[in-house]
């Protein structure tokens, strides 16, 4: 019998209902502007134990012996109210500014998510700007379009594409610095009608600081990593400095944050030759220094050197302005500027008989001849990026019968240029190896100027007088434009302007949506939420050019549009004074991105390598949750399930239109099924005053159920694990406050074995291109020297575990920081 995600989740409802589990009460607000703060509505039974909020029940006359987690529609006031829907009884987690300061060695904003249940950001080094993708319960680190990341409600997720490759599409983490974070809220799953289908994995919202009086902050930090891999070792360091200043004067408030980072990352890619491809030596240079190891499929190969090591310089500027037009209406503007200058370097390990490094030509290793080295083995890249973000909103926050908001945002690739040695035009390759490539020669320039996205939204909240309802409705439009021109340079690729076109990719998508959802109390112990999202999606102006001469012919794609409805529902029941049970279900439709539709830049396999007719991913996701407070111990157990049809992955299929060739491209997988169980525990002052503990454990079973595509042979993916989803993962954090001045934390993270390929052929995770298990520990010590000055020292990957996610993660890293707060 085939079961949907909802059916599989419902099958375990009886087991969950028998558990005595419930949530923690809301904590007191430590940093609130309660006089004129925006007002939201929140279910006290879903407030996380780490949230810093101030809650005031509508029923002010509640008796003293009332349940600790009584259901209701509750008004919440705070200086930085979450933009996430607060009335939906589903799983949410929160990390506060205090949590980050005390417990996390946060060198980038994504580090704030480090110890949250079932989440992983694939951050390879400090300032990782092109591969740091968020993974969640049923979405791996190759699926950036299956999560939604916002800052102050402004979209940071990059839905121009999905995953990494020639173009990479992680969230723009660099537009938020750790020092300006007030709070990070996470909602798991697509259970709010207010978000597009990209929310199927998780929705992350960074709330940044807004002052209530004059304040100033400054911070300097240093990190050092000693990395040893394949017999080669070095030390890589990073420096960071930031400053913030802001104030409020009557109705006007402002905030400015600047951040500068210089980072050297460890080598991430490795030039290689499979040992079995060696032939009898007829020519070539005998070399030594190659390292013979098994690859991710346990096939012996020679590693010839480090292919990519980034030196990155980043600058960040964020300006926030707010003006109270009245006692209940506030206008806000935010601008973010992010600059990134990156040098990608490579190093050959090969040496000739004279001991000189070898970067080109046919080579001979251990008496066998191998294909010649080219610029593609030891690339040199230089990138200069400058992206600008704007956001404007006007919001009513009366807390009365009606409230409303209108908002707009713009993200612009103002400058986006990548230069690389070596040039391919119409299948003819002009090599430009090192050492000559370090000073010039032939290469390419990829220019993304004109790429970006913009959003428009309007919403209203209606609280009908005399009823137990909160109705929210809204209209949204998100527009995306991809424009990448790659040009050849025959002179000096490091300095010259663009030459003849190598390829050009353009296209646009637009998503228009209307939604409504209603939360109401249907009894003393019951609350329900029903929502519906209607979407109209368009893709147009898709075009790929492959040469300046028009041979082969450019691909021009017809416009298309589709309509979808996504219902949502949630229910919570207060089963006992300390116990709440919750159920949520929702449909999510994740639209194909511009890059997936039109982004191929070659015709190597066939002229049909693009597929402008990709179907959207359609998921049904459900979860059943039981929450319990056992004195000081707070616990949660969540059963989750998801069925995704037409999931988008790059794979192979026989294309009869292309003379039955095997064509590799982004395609739809018919069905992937995921079920899992997630449990969390948290307690304060455990065993002795000042000791706080928290932990999570997640089990996931995610398999490909049906698929007409394949990797090597038909049917080779059926029953295999979805890539980048481990069976087990866990986190644990112990934090101790010795006194008002000193605190320390010890944290651990674990992830079990996983696969990168659809047919699970990469059985050796501990290799370049593999995905390994890991078990790491981190420590942090914070010293508050005075009210203004503080210092911290930390070690990440304390046990120096060497692990991989295609690229190698950082090894043991030391960090130190000094901070001033006025």
From TrEMBL:
Keyword presence, Ion transport: yes
Alphabetical keyword list: Cell outer membrane, Ion transport, Membrane, Receptor, Signal, TonB box, Transmembrane, Transmembrane beta strand, Transport
Any Pfam family the entry gives: Plug
Descriptive protein name: TonB-dependent receptor
Domain of life per record: Bacteria
Main localization, broad class: membrane
Record membrane topology: Multi-pass membrane protein
Stretches assigned to the TonB-dependent receptor plug domain: 87-203
Residues of the signal peptide: 1-28
Gene3D superfamilies documented for this protein: TonB-dependent receptor, beta-barrel domain, TonB-dependent receptor, plug domain
PANTHER family attached to this UniProt entry: COLICIN I RECEPTOR-RELATED, TONB-DEPENDENT OUTER MEMBRANE RECEPTOR
UniProt KW Signal keyword: yes
Similarity-based family: Belongs to the TonB-dependent receptor family.
InterPro entries registered for this protein in UniProt: Beta-barrel_TonB (IPR000531), Beta-barrel_TonB_sf (IPR036942), Plug_dom (IPR012910), Plug_dom_sf (IPR037066), TonB-dep_rcpt-like (IPR039426)
Domain TonB-dependent receptor-like beta-barrel span(s) in chain numbering: 376-798
Compartments it resides in: Cell outer membrane
């Amino acid at each position: 019998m085939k079961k949907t995600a909802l059916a599989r989740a419902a099958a375990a409802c009886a087991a969950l209902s028998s558990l005595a589990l419930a949530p923690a009460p809301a904590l007191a607000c430590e940093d609130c502007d309660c006089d004129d703060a925006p007002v939201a509505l929140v279910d006290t039974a879903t407030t996380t134990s780490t949230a810093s909020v101030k809650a005031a029940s509508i029923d002010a006359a509640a008796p003293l012996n009332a349940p600790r987690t009584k259901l209701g529609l509750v008004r919440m006031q705070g200086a930085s109210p979450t933009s996430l829907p607060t009335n939906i009884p589903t799983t949410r987690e929160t990390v506060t500014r205090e949590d980050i300061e005390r417990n996390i060695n946060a060198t980038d904003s994504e580090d704030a998510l480090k110890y949250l249940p079932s989440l992983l950001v694939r951050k390879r080094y400090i300032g990782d700007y092109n591969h740091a993708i968020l993974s969640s319960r049923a979405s791996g680190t190759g699926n950036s379009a299956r999560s939604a990341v916002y800052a102050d409600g402004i979209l940071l997720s990059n839905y121009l594409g999905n995953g990494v490759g020639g173009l990479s599409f992680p969230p723009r983490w660099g537009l938020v610095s750790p020092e300006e974070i007030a709070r990070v809220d996470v909602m798991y799953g697509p259970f709010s009608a207010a978000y597009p289908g990209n929310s199927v994995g998780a929705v992350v919202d960074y709330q940044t600081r807004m002052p209530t009086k004059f304040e100033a902050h400054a911070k300097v930090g240093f990190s050092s990593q000693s990395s040893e891999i394949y017999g080669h070792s070095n030390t890589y360091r990073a420096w960071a400095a930031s400053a913030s200043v802001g104030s409020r004067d009557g109705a006007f408030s402002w905030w400015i944050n600047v951040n500068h980072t210089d980072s050297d990352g460890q080598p991430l890619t490795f030039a290689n030759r499979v040992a079995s491809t060696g032939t009898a030596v007829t020519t070539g240079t005998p070399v030594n220094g190659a390292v013979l190891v098994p690859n991710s499929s346990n096939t012996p190969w020679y590693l010839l050197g480090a292919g990519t090591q980034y030196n990155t310089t980043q600058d960040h500027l964020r300006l926030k302005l707010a003006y109270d037009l009245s006692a209940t209406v506030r206008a806000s503007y935010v601008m973010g500027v992010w600059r990134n200058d990156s040098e990608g370097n490579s190093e050959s390990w090969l040496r000739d008989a004279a001991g000189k490094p070898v970067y080109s030509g046919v080579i001979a290793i251990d008496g066998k001849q191998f294909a010649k080295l080219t610029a593609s083995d030891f690339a040199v890249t230089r990138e200069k990026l400058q992206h600008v973000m704007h956001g404007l909103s006007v919001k009513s926050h009366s807390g009365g019968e009606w409230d409303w908001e209108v908002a707009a945002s713009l993200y612009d690739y103002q400058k986006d240029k990548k230069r690389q040695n070596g040039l391919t035009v119409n299948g003819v390759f002009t090599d430009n190896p090192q050492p000559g490539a370090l000073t010039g020669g032939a290469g390419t320039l990829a220019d993304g100027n004109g790429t970006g996205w913009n959003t428009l939204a309007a919403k209203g909240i209606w609280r009908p007088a005399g009823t137990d309802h909160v109705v929210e409705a809204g209209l949204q439009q998100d527009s995306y434009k991809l424009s990448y021109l790659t040009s050849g340079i025959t002179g000096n690729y490091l300095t010259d302007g663009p030459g003849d076109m190598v390829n050009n990719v353009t296209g646009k998508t637009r998503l228009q949506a209307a939604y409504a959802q209603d939360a109401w109390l249907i009894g003393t112990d019951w609350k329900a939420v029903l929502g519906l999202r209607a979407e109209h999606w368009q893709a147009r102006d898709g075009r790929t050019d492959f040469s300046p001469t028009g041979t082969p012919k450019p691909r021009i794609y017809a416009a298309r549009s589709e309509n979808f409805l996504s219902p949502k529902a949630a229910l919570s029941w207060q089963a006992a004074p300390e116990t709440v049970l919750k159920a949520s279900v929702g449909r999510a439709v994740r639209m194909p991105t511009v890059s997936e539709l039109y982004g191929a830049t070659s015709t190597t396999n066939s002229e049909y390598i693009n597929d402008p007719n990709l179907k959207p991913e359609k998921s049904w996701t459900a979860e059943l949750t039981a929450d319990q407070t056992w004195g000081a111990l707070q616990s949660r157990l969540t059963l989750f399930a998801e069925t995704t049809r037409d999931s988008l992955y790059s794979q192979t299929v026989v294309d009869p239109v292309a003379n039955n060739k095997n064509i590799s491209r982004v395609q739809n997988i018919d069905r992937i099924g995921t079920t899992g169980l997630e449990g969390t525990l948290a307690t304060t002052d455990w065993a002795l005053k000042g000791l706080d503990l928290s932990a999570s454990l997640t089990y996931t079973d995610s398999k490909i159920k049906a698929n007409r595509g394949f990797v090597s042979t038909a049917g080779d993916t059926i029953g295999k694990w979805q890539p980048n989803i481990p069976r087990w993962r866990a986190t644990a954090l112990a934090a101790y406050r010795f006194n008002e001045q000193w605190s320390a934390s010890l944290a651990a993270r674990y992830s079990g074995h996983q696969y990168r390929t659809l047919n699970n052929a990469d059985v050796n995770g501990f290799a370049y291109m593999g995905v390994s298990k890991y078990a790491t520990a981190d420590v942090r010590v914070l010293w508050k020297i005075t009210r203004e000055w503080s210092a911290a020292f930390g070690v990440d990957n304390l046990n120096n575990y060497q692990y991989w996610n295609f690229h190698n993660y950082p090894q043991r890293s030391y960090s130190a920081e000094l901070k001033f707060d006025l």
